[in-house]
Amino acid sequence: MGGDRRGGGLKRGEVWRYQAISRSQPVLVVSCDELNDAEAPIVVDVTPFSPQGAATLLTVRLGDELGGYARCRTISFADPKRFTKLLGTVPDSTMEQVDLALRAALGL
Hints:
The protein is an alpha+beta fold. Strands 4-5-3-2-1-6 form a six-stranded antiparallel β-sheet. 19% of the residues lie in helices and 37% in strands. The chain has one domain (6-106): SH3 type barrels, CATH 2.30.30. The chain has helices spanning 33-37, 92-106; strands at 14-19, 24-29, 42-47, 59-63, 68-77, 83-89.
Protein backbone atom coordinates (compact mmCIF):
# COMPACT_ATOMS: atom_id res chain seq x y z
CA MET A 1 0.00 0.00 0.00
CA GLY A 2 2.93 2.34 0.58
CA GLY A 3 5.45 3.83 -1.79
CA ASP A 4 7.13 7.04 -2.82
CA ARG A 5 5.54 9.04 -5.62
CA ARG A 6 6.15 12.65 -4.66
CA GLY A 7 7.05 13.30 -8.29
CA GLY A 8 3.47 12.35 -9.22
CA GLY A 9 2.07 14.85 -6.73
CA LEU A 10 0.35 14.56 -3.41
CA LYS A 11 -3.35 13.73 -3.26
CA ARG A 12 -6.04 14.68 -0.78
CA GLY A 13 -6.68 11.79 1.61
CA GLU A 14 -3.18 10.35 1.50
CA VAL A 15 -1.25 9.60 4.67
CA TRP A 16 2.49 10.22 4.36
CA ARG A 17 5.55 9.90 6.55
CA TYR A 18 6.73 13.51 6.90
CA GLN A 19 10.24 14.53 7.95
CA ALA A 20 9.84 17.66 10.06
CA ILE A 21 12.89 19.53 11.26
CA SER A 22 13.11 17.69 14.58
CA ARG A 23 11.17 14.46 13.96
CA SER A 24 9.48 12.16 11.49
CA GLN A 25 5.71 11.73 11.78
CA PRO A 26 2.71 10.65 9.73
CA VAL A 27 0.43 13.36 8.32
CA LEU A 28 -2.85 13.35 6.41
CA VAL A 29 -3.10 15.57 3.32
CA VAL A 30 -6.35 17.59 3.63
CA SER A 31 -5.83 20.27 0.98
CA CYS A 32 -7.49 20.15 -2.43
CA ASP A 33 -5.45 18.63 -5.23
CA GLU A 34 -5.06 22.06 -6.90
CA LEU A 35 -3.10 23.30 -3.86
CA ASN A 36 -1.18 20.03 -3.75
CA ASP A 37 -0.26 20.40 -7.44
CA ALA A 38 0.88 23.97 -6.70
CA GLU A 39 3.20 22.52 -4.02
CA ALA A 40 1.25 24.18 -1.19
CA PRO A 41 -0.17 21.16 0.68
CA ILE A 42 -2.05 21.48 3.96
CA VAL A 43 -1.89 18.61 6.44
CA VAL A 44 -3.10 17.49 9.84
CA ASP A 45 -1.00 15.42 12.23
CA VAL A 46 -1.66 11.72 12.67
CA THR A 47 -1.07 10.17 16.08
CA PRO A 48 -1.26 6.62 17.44
CA PHE A 49 -2.76 7.89 20.70
CA SER A 50 -6.49 7.72 21.33
CA PRO A 51 -7.94 11.18 21.99
CA GLN A 52 -9.25 12.18 25.39
CA GLY A 53 -11.87 14.74 26.44
CA ALA A 54 -12.84 17.53 24.05
CA ALA A 55 -10.11 16.45 21.62
CA THR A 56 -12.31 13.53 20.56
CA LEU A 57 -14.55 16.01 18.69
CA LEU A 58 -11.66 17.03 16.45
CA THR A 59 -10.10 13.60 15.96
CA VAL A 60 -10.93 10.98 13.34
CA ARG A 61 -9.90 7.33 13.53
CA LEU A 62 -7.89 6.30 10.47
CA GLY A 63 -6.92 2.82 11.61
CA ASP A 64 -3.68 1.38 12.91
CA GLU A 65 -2.32 0.68 9.41
CA LEU A 66 -2.49 4.43 8.67
CA GLY A 67 -1.05 5.61 11.97
CA GLY A 68 -4.06 5.84 14.26
CA TYR A 69 -5.97 9.14 14.47
CA ALA A 70 -6.07 12.35 12.41
CA ARG A 71 -5.85 15.34 14.78
CA CYS A 72 -7.88 18.00 13.00
CA ARG A 73 -6.86 20.67 15.52
CA THR A 74 -3.31 20.82 14.16
CA ILE A 75 -3.61 22.22 10.63
CA SER A 76 -0.40 23.30 8.92
CA PHE A 77 1.27 23.96 5.59
CA ALA A 78 3.85 21.37 4.64
CA ASP A 79 6.98 21.40 2.51
CA PRO A 80 6.47 18.95 -0.39
CA LYS A 81 10.17 18.00 -0.25
CA ARG A 82 9.74 16.59 3.27
CA PHE A 83 7.20 13.88 2.37
CA THR A 84 9.22 10.67 2.48
CA LYS A 85 6.91 7.65 2.20
CA LEU A 86 3.29 7.13 1.21
CA LEU A 87 1.63 5.05 3.93
CA GLY A 88 -1.79 4.74 2.30
CA THR A 89 -5.01 6.52 1.41
CA VAL A 90 -8.07 6.90 3.64
CA PRO A 91 -11.51 5.94 2.29
CA ASP A 92 -13.90 8.69 1.13
CA SER A 93 -16.17 8.02 4.12
CA THR A 94 -13.29 8.74 6.50
CA MET A 95 -12.40 11.94 4.62
CA GLU A 96 -16.01 13.05 5.09
CA GLN A 97 -15.50 12.66 8.85
CA VAL A 98 -12.25 14.64 8.59
CA ASP A 99 -14.12 17.37 6.69
CA LEU A 100 -16.72 17.57 9.46
CA ALA A 101 -14.04 17.81 12.13
CA LEU A 102 -12.23 20.56 10.21
CA ARG A 103 -15.47 22.47 9.76
CA ALA A 104 -16.11 22.22 13.50
CA ALA A 105 -12.56 23.34 14.32
CA LEU A 106 -12.80 26.35 11.99
CA GLY A 107 -16.42 27.26 12.69
CA LEU A 108 -17.47 26.75 9.05
